[in-house]
C-alpha cells in the first residue's frame, strides 16, 4: 500500500496565511531570507502517516495517531437465544404432528410477525427447544410470542401501594413494556380511577416469578424514597437556585436528593424534594438555611428603568440576570411584560447592592433604539436583492437589529450604542444616495388593461424594465387597484411612464368585437397544437384573439385591437369559417347492409377511390351495427357526387327501384314518429326499403322510397294509407308486453302482426333495440281500429302470460341436433316463440320425452316448429360434390363468407375434406375433368346413375376433392349448383411484354389494386419467359370486368409511353460558367421558377465535367425552347453588366454587411447590384467588387462611399476612446519580465532533510512513475518502503 501526499492551492494558501504581509510579498518576490523557520509546519503535521498494524512479540499493538481517533470496534447486531418449553407446559402435545401441525404454523406466523428466525427441536424429555436468531428487539418480541402462544399460561396477582404503580408503568409505559419483554408475561395494572392495588400477571410459571420479583423490587425501592414540599417565598428562589443553577446543583450532588425549583415564569412558591428519607431531610435543612440567611441579611432597593430597556437587563434567555447574580449575589426582579410598571427591584446583601445597581444601569443603557428617515418606496432598494445590501451591514454589526415597517417612512435600529451610530450613518448614506439618483412615478390605468400591459409571459413589462432600468409594480387582479408605480432612474422613470401611458391610451382606443362562431369549429380554427391560430395571429399581430373555455359551451370569439386590423381579421376568420361550413356539409345515404362490402371493395379499394376522387370523408357503420346509413362529409357538391356513385354501385348490384310519393310536409313529423319509430317499422316490415323524408322546414312534399320493386310498392301503399289516416282521424294507444313475447306476437316474417293489422286496419309498432322502454308497444289508426287491435293484442298477451307445460316425443337420434353448439337451436326457438323453455333428457338416456314450458300459444308454435325440424332431419340426404382441392379456398371466400352464405340461403350443411398433399391428388381420370363443360360430378348417397361405384377403383374421386352436403334433397341440389358456380375459371389476355412491369407497379401495388378491385387473381409470366400472355383467374361473373380493366390499363400505359417519348426532347445551351450562379439564383429560386413555368428539367454541368459551359434542358420541344429563351434573356442581361472594384476600409465592412447580411441584402435589392467583399486572408482586405448595370453600379458605389465616411467617423472616435482608457491591472504588469524562482512549499523535519537522501525529483519517472509505464528496480527512498 502506498501513501501519496497531494498539495493543493488551498492548502498552500492555508500554510502561507500565517505569514506577515511583508513576508508574503517577500515570498512572492523570491526572497528566502524573510521566511521564519519556526513558523514552518513539520512534515508529520502537513502529511500525517496512515495507520499501520505491525506484528510484535507481545501481540498486536494499536498505533495512536490522528487517523485512528474516530475508529470504533463494530459489534454484530444479530444475537441467538434458546428457549425451552417443558412437556407439561406445552400447548400442543400431539407427538405425531411435530413440524407440521398447529405448532409449526404458529412458529411461521411468529417469524413473519417479528422478523426473527426460529428453529424447533424436540428434547428427550419431550420438551420443546426453540432457537431464535435476529436483532435483539426482534428476539425479545419473538420470545414473548412463543411464551404466549406455545406455552400454557398461568396467572397471579401482586399487591403493591397504589402510588407505586406509576413507577412500574414508567415514562410513556416504557418500563412496563420492558418488563413484559424481559419476563415474557402480560402485566395488567388497574386504571388510576380503580381503587384496587392488585397487579395481575399472566404467563409461564418461570415468567410469573420473575415478573413478581421485579415489581416487588420497584415497590421496595420506592418505599425507601420520600417526597417533601417546602414553601419558600418566590423572591428567594434565585438565591436557592444560584447563578446558572450552581447552588441547587451542589445541594443535589451533596445530598443525592432531587430538588425541583419552579421556574421564574411559573408563579408557585413550592419547592419539591424527592429521594431517600435521609437525603430529603438533609436537602430540606440546607434549603431552609439559605432561605433564613437571605431573609435575615437581604435588603431591597427599587429603581425606575424604561420598559423598553427591561429586555436588555434580562438579556437573552435571562443570561444577564444570571450574570449579575453570579457577580454580585444580588437578585434582580423585573415586572412581567404585560405589566405597565417600570420599577425594577434589586434584592441582596447591602454592600453588594451598589455594584448590582451599576451593572443594571450599564446593561439598560448598553442598547439604544434609533430611527432613520427613509421613504417607504426606497426600503426594498436599501434591503437589496435577496437582502444583499443589508447583509453587508449586519455582518459587520451582528448585534444591531434593523426593522422596516411597511407603509412607514422610517427604519428602526436597535442595538449597542456604539454600533447603532455606525449603522445609522451607513444607512443614512445609502438613503441620501438613493434619493439623489432615484425617482418614482405613479400612473392610473384601468385594471382591465393591466394584463395587456404585462404581455404574454410578462414580455411587455420585462422589456420596459430592461430598456429603462426601472422597477414597475402592477397591482394583482384581486386588489382591483388602478395605481401603477414606477421606480428607478429619474429619466428612465419618465420614459417608462410615457410608454406605459401610450400603451394604455392605445388600448383605450382599441376596438373589441365579438364573433359568433359555432363551438364545433373552434378546435379546427385553433389547429393541432395551436398551429392554425398562430398563423392568423402572425398575420394580424396587433389583434388579440380570445376563444371561450370549452366547458362554457359558448360560440363567442373575442377580437381586440386597432379598428382596421380587427375588421381585416374578422373578414379573414369569417372566410375560414365559411370554408369549414362548406366542407362540413353532411349527407346520410341508406345502403342495404349486404352491399356495404361491395361499396368498400377488396382491401377498401372502392371506398378509397371514391374518397380521393370526390375529396370527401365517408363513414360506414360497424359490422356488428344494425345501421344501414353511410355518412358522407365534405363540400355539398362533392357529397352529392359521392352519394350518386355509392347509389350507382348499389343499383348495379341489385334490382333497386326508386319512387317518389307526394305527402303534405305537415304530416312528415307524425309519419316519422318519435325518434323515427313509425317510419322504421314500415322500413323493417317492407323488407328493409329506405324511406327518405326531406329536411324539416324545407316545405318539400316528395318522399323518396328506394329498394326492391315489390317492397317499394308495398311501402308506398302503407305510407299513403297512413297519411290518409293522419289527415282524417288518427288515434294512438299504448300497451305493454314482456320483450320476450314480441317476436311471437310479430310472428315469422311478421305473419301474426299482419293478421291483426289486416283485420283491424291499425298499425302496430314494436320497440327497437335502441329504445329505452323495451316493453312499450304503440298502436296507431282510427279510434275503432286502435280499440279493436288493442283488444286482440291484450288477448294474445294474456294468453302468453298463462304458462302451461306440454310433452312431446323426439327420437333420441335427433337430440344432439337440438342441444349442439350449446343449445343454439333451442335458444333460437325460445327467442322466436316467447321464451319457451325446452328440456331434453340427459345425455346417455334413451328417453324420447321432451318437455316444453311457456305460454300456451307459444308452446304450441314451438312444438310445431320442432316437428318441422324433425321432419327435415328425417328427410335429410347426403350428397357429394367433387371439385378439385385447388379451388376449395376460392369457393370458401374470405373467412368462409361465400360458403356461409350458401349454407344460410339453402339451409344445408357443407363439409370440406381435410387438406392433403396435392401431389397425391393428381386428377388424371375424365371423371374429374371440369372442362369443357365445367361441370363437377355429383353422387347421391354413394350412387351415380343407379350403379354403385367401388371407391377402390382408379376412377373413384380422391377424398381431398369431395365436398359433402347434408340437407333436404332439393336444397342440396341447389347448393351443389351454387358451389359449381363458385369454381374459378381462367382466361388469357395478350399484353405487350414491355408493359408488364408497369402493370405490376412499384412493389406489386398496381397489380394488387386490380386484383382487389375486380376480385380476381392475375398471373404475370416470369421476365425470363418473355411471354405476352397474362392469365386472369376468378369467378366467371368477374372475368369480363377484369379483362376490360386490364385492357384499359394497357391503353393508359401506351398513351404514357407516347407522352414520355415527347417529353424526352433534349437541347443544350452554351453559357459562360461565371453566369451559372446568377441563373440558379439565391437558394435556386430563379432556376426553380424557370423549371416550374416551362415544365422542364434543367441540368447544370458537374464540377469535373469537361463541358463546363453546357446547360442541358429536357422536356416537351416547345417548352424546352421557351426555357432556353428565358435563360438566354438572363444571360443577355448579365452580359450588359459591368464590375468595378472600389477600396472600402475593412474596419467598416462588418457594419455595411449588417447582422446576418441584412444590410448588404438591402443595398443589393435597392440598387439591383451584386457586392463581393474580400475573404479573410485576402491580399487586399479593403477591395470590394460591385457588379450590375453601369448606372446602378455608379449609384451603389456612391452610396457605399458615403456609408464608409459615416462609419469611419465612429471607428476613429472609438479608437481614440480606447487609447485614453485606463490600462487594466494585468496589462500594467510586464508579461515579459522574468519572475524569480519559486521555492515551492517548505516543511521542517522532512525525511530527506534528516538523512543523506535528496528530496524526490518531481520530473523523475522512477520516483513518480506514470500509469502503465515500466517501473525500474526499486531502491531505498526517503518516502519509506513501497507497499504495493
From TrEMBL:
Q: What is a biological process (GO) this protein takes part in?
A: cholesterol metabolic process
Any one GO molecular function term: mRNA binding
Matching entries from InterPro entries are given as: KH_dom, KH_dom_type_1, KH_dom_type_1_sf, KH_Vigilin_N
Does the keyword Cytoplasm belong to this entry? yes
Q: In what residue span(s) does the K Homology domain sit?
A: 152-220, 224-292, 297-365, 366-432, 437-505, 509-578, 583-651, 655-724, 729-798, 802-871, 875-984, 985-1051, 1063-1132, 1136-1205
Recorded hits in PROSITE patterns, A to Z, give: KH_TYPE_1
Asked if the keyword Repeat belongs to this entry, the reply reads: yes
Span-the-membrane segments of this chain are none
Question: What is this protein's function?
Answer: Appears to play a role in cell sterol metabolism. It may function to protect cells from over-accumulation of cholesterol.
Q: What is this protein called?
A: Vigilin
The organism encoding this protein is Electrophorus voltai
Amino acid at each position: 500500500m502506498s501513501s501519496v501526499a497531494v498539495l493543493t492551492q488551498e492548502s498552500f494558501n492555508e500554510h502561507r496565511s500565517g505569514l506577515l504581509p511583508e513576508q508574503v510579498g517577500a515570498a512572492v518576490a523570491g526572497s528566502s531570507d524573510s521566511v521564519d523557520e519556526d513558523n514552518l509546519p513539520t512534515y508529520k503535521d502537513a502529511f500525517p502517516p496512515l495507520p499501520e498494524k505491525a506484528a510484535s512479540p507481545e501481540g498486536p499493538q494499536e498505533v495512536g495517531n490522528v487517523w485512528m481517533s474516530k475508529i470504533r470496534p463494530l459489534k454484530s447486531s444479530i444475537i441467538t437465544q434458546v428457549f425451552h418449553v417443558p412437556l407439561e407446559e406445552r400447548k400442543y402435545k400431539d407427538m405425531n404432528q411435530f413440524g407440521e401441525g398447529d405448532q409449526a404454523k404458529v412458529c411461521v406466523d411468529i417469524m413473519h410477525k417479528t422478523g426473527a428466525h426460529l428453529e424447533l427441536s424436540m428434547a428427550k424429555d419431550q420438551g420443546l427447544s426453540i432457537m431464535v436468531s435476529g436483532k435483539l428487539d426482534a428476539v425479545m418480541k419473538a420470545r414473548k410470542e412463543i411464551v404466549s402462544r406455545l406455552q400454557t399460561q398461568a396467572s397471579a396477582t401482586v399487591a403493591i401501594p397504589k402510588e407505586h404503580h406509576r413507577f412500574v408503568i414508567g415514562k410513556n409505559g416504557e418500563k412496563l413494556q420492558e418488563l413484559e419483554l424481559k419476563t415474557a408475561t402480560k402485566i395488567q395494572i388497574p386504571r388510576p380511577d380503580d381503587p384496587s392495588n392488585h397487579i395481575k400477571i399472566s404467563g409461564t410459571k418461570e415468567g410469573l416469578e420473575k415478573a413478581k420479583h421485579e415489581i416487588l423490587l420497584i415497590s421496595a425501592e420506592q418505599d425507601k424514597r420520600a417526597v417533601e414540599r417546602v414553601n419558600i417565598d418566590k423572591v428567594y428562589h434565585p438565591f436557592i437556585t444560584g447563578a446558572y443553577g450552581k447552588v441547587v446543583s451542589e445541594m443535589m450532588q451533596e445530598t443525592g436528593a432531587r430538588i425541583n425549583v419552579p421556574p421564574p415564569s411559573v408563579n408557585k412558591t413550592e419547592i419539591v424534594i424527592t429521594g431517600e428519607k435521609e437525603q430529603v431531610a438533609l436537602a430540606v435543612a440546607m434549603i431552609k438555611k439559605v432561605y433564613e440567611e437571605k431573609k435575615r441579611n437581604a435588603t431591597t432597593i427599587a429603581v425606575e428603568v424604561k420598559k423598553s430597556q427591561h429586555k436588555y437587563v434580562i438579556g437573552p434567555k435571562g443570561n444577564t440576570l444570571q450574570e449579575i447574580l453570579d457577580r454580585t449575589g444580588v437578585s434582580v426582579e423585573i415586572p412581567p411584560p404585560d405589566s405597565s410598571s417600570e420599577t425594577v427591584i434589586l434584592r441582596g446583601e447591602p454592600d453588594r447592592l451598589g455594584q448590582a445597581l451599576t451593572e443594571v444601569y450599564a446593561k439598560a443603557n448598553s442598547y439604544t433604539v434609533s430611527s432613520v428617515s427613509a421613504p417607504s418606496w426606497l426600503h426594498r432598494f436599501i434591503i437589496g436583492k435577496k437582502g444583499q445590501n443589508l447583509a453587508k451591514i449586519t455582518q459587520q454589526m451582528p448585534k444591531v437589529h434593523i426593522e422596516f415597517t411597511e407603509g412607514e417612512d422610517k427604519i428602526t435600529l436597535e442595538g449597542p450604542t456604539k454600533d447603532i451610530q455606525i449603522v445609522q450613518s451607513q444607512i443614512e448614506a445609502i438613503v441620501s444616495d438613493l434619493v439623489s439618483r432615484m425617482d418614482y412615478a405613479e400612473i392610473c390605468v384601468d385594471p382591465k388593461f393591466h394584463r395587456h400591459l404585462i404581455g404574454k409571459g410578462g414580455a411587455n413589462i420585462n422589456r420596459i424594465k430592461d430598456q429603462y432600468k426601472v422597477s414597475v409594480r402592477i397591482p394583482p387582479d384581486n386588489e382591483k387597484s388602478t395605481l401603477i408605480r414606477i421606480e428607478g432612474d429619474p429619466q428612465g422613470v419618465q420614459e417608462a411612464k410615457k410608454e406605459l401611458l401610450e400603451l394604455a391610451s392605445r388600448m383605450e382606443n382599441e376596438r373589441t368585437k365579438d364573433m359568433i362562431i359555432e363551438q364545433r369549429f373552434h378546435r379546427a380554427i385553433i389547429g393541432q397544437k395551436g398551429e392554425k391560430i398562430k398563423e392568423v395571429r402572425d398575420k394580424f399581430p396587433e389583434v388579440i384573439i380570445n376563444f371561450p373555455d370549452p366547458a362554457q359551451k359558448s360560440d363567442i370569439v373575442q377580437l381586440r385591437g386597432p379598428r382596421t386590423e380587427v375588421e381585416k381579421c374578422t373578414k379573414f376568420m369569417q372566410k375560414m369559417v365559411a370554408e369549414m361550413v362548406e366542407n362540413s356539409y353532411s349527407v346520410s345515404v341508406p345502403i342495404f347492409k349486404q352491399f356495404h362490402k361491395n361499396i368498400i371493395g377488396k382491401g377498401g379499394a372502392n371506398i378509397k377511390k371514391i374518397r380521393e376522387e370526390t375529396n370527401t370523408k365517408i363513414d360506414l357503420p360497424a359490422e356488428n351495427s344494425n345501421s344501414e346509413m353511410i355518412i358522407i362529409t365534405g363540400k355539398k357538391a362533392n357529397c352529392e357526387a359521392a352519394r350518386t356513385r355509392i347509389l350507382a354501385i348499389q343499383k348495379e348490384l341489385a334490382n333497386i327501384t326508386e319512387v317518389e310519393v307526394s305527402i303534405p310536409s305537415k304530416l312528415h313529423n307524425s309519419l316519422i314518429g318519435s325518434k323515427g319509430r313509425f317510419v322504421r317499422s314500415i322500413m323493417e316490415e317492407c323488407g328493409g326499403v329506405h324511406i327518405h323524408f326531406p329536411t324539416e322546414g324545407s316545405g318539400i312534399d316528395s318522399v323518396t322510397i328506394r329498394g326492391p320493386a315489390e317492397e317499394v310498392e308495398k311501402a308506398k301503399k302503407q305510407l299513403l294509407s297512413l297519411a290518409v289516416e293522419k289527415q282524417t282521424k288518427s288515434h294512438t294507444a299504448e300497451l305493454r308486453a314482456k320483450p320476450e313475447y314480441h317476436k311471437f306476437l310479430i310472428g315469422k316474417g311478421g305473419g301474426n302482426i299482419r293478421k291483426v293489422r289486416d283485420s283491424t286496419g291499425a298499425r302496430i309498432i314494436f320497440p327497437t333495440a335502441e329504445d329505452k322502454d323495451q316493453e312499450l308497444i304503440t298502436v296507431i289508426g282510427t279510434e275503432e281500429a286502435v280499440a279493436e287491435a288493442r283488444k286482440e293484442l291484450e288477448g294474445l298477451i294474456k294468453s302468453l302470460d298463462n304458462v302451461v307445460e306440454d310433452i312431446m316425443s323426439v327420437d333420441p337420434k335427433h337430440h344432439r341436433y337440438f342441444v349442439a353448439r350449446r343449445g343454439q337451436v333451442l335458444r333460437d326457438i325460445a327467442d322466436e316463440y316467447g321464451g319457451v323453455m325446452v328440456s331434453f333428457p340427459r345425455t346417455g338416456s334413451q328417453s324420447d320425452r321432451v318437455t316444453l314450458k311457456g305460454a300456451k300459444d307459444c308452446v304450441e308454435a314451438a312444438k310445431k316448429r320442432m316437428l318441422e325440424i324433425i321432419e327435415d332431419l328425417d328427410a335429410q340426404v347426403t350428397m357429394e360434390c367433387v371439385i378439385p382441392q385447388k379451388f376449395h379456398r376460392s369457393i370458401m371466400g374470405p373467412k368462409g363468407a361465400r360458403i356461409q352464405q350458401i349454407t344460410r340461403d339453402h339451409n344445408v350443411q357443407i363439409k370440406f375434406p381435410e387438406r392433403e398433399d396435392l401431389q397425391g391428388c393428381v386428377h388424371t381420370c375424365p371423371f374429374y375433368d371440369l372442362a369443357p363443360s365445367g361441370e363437377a360430378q355429383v353422387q347421391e348417397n354413394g350412387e351415380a346413375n343407379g350403379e354403385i361405384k367401388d371407391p377402390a377403383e382408379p376412377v373413384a374421386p380422391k377424398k381431398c376433392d369431395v365436398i359433402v352436403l347434408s340437407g333436404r334433397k332439393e336444397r342440396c341440389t341447389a347448393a351443389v349448383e351454387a358451389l359449381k358456380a363458385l369454381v374459378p375459371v381462367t382466361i388469357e389476355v395478350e399484353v405487350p411484354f414491355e408493359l408488364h412491369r408497369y402493370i405490376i407497379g412499384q412493389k406489386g401495388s398496381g397489380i394488387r389494386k386490380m386484383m382487389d378491385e375486380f376480385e380476381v387473381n392475375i398471373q404475370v409470366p416470369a421476365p425470363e419467359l418473355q411471354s405476352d400472355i397474362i392469365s386472369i383467374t376468378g369467378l366467371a361473373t368477374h372475368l369480363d370486368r377484369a379483362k376490360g380493366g386490364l385492357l384499359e390499363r394497357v391503353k393508359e400505359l401506351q398513351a404514357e409511353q407516347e407522352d414520355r417519348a415527347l417529353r424526352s426532347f433534349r437541347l443544350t445551351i452554351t453559357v459562360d460558367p461565371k453566369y451559372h450562379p446568377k441563373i440558379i439564383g439565391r437558394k435556386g429560386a430563379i432556376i426553380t421558377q424557370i423549371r416550374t413555368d416551362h415544365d422542364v428539367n434543367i441540368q447544370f454541368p458537374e464540377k469535373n465535367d469537361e463541358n463546363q459551359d453546357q446547360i442541358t434542358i429536357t422536356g416537351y420541344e416547345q417548352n424546352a425552347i421557351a426555357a432556353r429563351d428565358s435563360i438566354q434573356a438572363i444571360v443577355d442581361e448579365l452580359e450588359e453588366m459591368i464590375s468595378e472594384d472600389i477600396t472600402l476600409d475593412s474596419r467598416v465592412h462588418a457594419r455595411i454587411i449588417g447582422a446576418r447580411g441584412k444590410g448588404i441584402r438591402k443595398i443589393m435589392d435597392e440598387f439591383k447590384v451584386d457586392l463581393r467583399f474580400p475573404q479573410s486572408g485576402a491580399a487586399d482586405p479593403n477591395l470590394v467588387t460591385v457588379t450590375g448595370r453601369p448606372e446602378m453600379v455608379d449609384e451603389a458605389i456612391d452610396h457605399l462611399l458615403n456609408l464608409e465616411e459615416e462609419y469611419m467617423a465612429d471607428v476613429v472616435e472609438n479608437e481614440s476612446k480606447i487609447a485614453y482608457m485606463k490600462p487594466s491591472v494585468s496589462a500594467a504588469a510586464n508579461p515579459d519580465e522574468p519572475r524569480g524562482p519559486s521555492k515551492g512549499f517548505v516543511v521542517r523535519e522532512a525525511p530527506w532533510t534528516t538523512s543523506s537522501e535528496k528530496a524526490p525529483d518531481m520530473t523523475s519517472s522512477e520516483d513518480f512513475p506514470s500509469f502503465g509505464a515500466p517501473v525500474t528496480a526499486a531502491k531505498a527512498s526517503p518516502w519509506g518502503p513501497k507497499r504495493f
